UniProtKB/TrEMBL annotation:
The chain crosses the membrane at residues 6-27. This is Fungal N-terminal domain-containing protein. Keywords: Membrane, Transmembrane, Transmembrane helix.
């Protein structure tokens, strides 16, 4: 994977981290549904940890000869999993922001 592609994947991951952190903040402000709030907070916190780990793993990789770069390439494609996840998380953040 070329350096430009790596930077694009890192940027997408950083955007997802920011959106996920916003969702956690919104969920913590919801007072009417404590069980659902806790469930969403747990899931988004787990996602945040995974995304953070992925970001640092991408940044620390020493070369494109690292075998997992091939799988990573598929995550960063246009309309790929990272873009779809970002879109879904942004929609959720928007819904939660309106309710907050």
């Amino acid at each position: 994977m070329d350096p430009v592609s790596v930077l694009g994947v890192i940027a997408a991951i950083i955007q997802l981290i920011e959106t996920t952190a916003n969702i956690i903040s919104y969920v913590n402000d919801i007072k009417d549904a404590p069980a659902k709030r806790a469930q969403v907070a747990r899931h988004t916190s787990s996602l945040l940890a995974l995304l953070t780990d992925l970001r640092y793993r991408v940044e620390e990789a020493n070369s494109t000869s690292d075998p997992w770069f091939e799988a990573l390439r598929g995550l960063g494609v246009q309309e790929g999993p990272l873009v779809q996840l970002k879109d879904q998380m942004e929609q959720l953040a928007e819904k939660l922001d309106r309710k907050g």
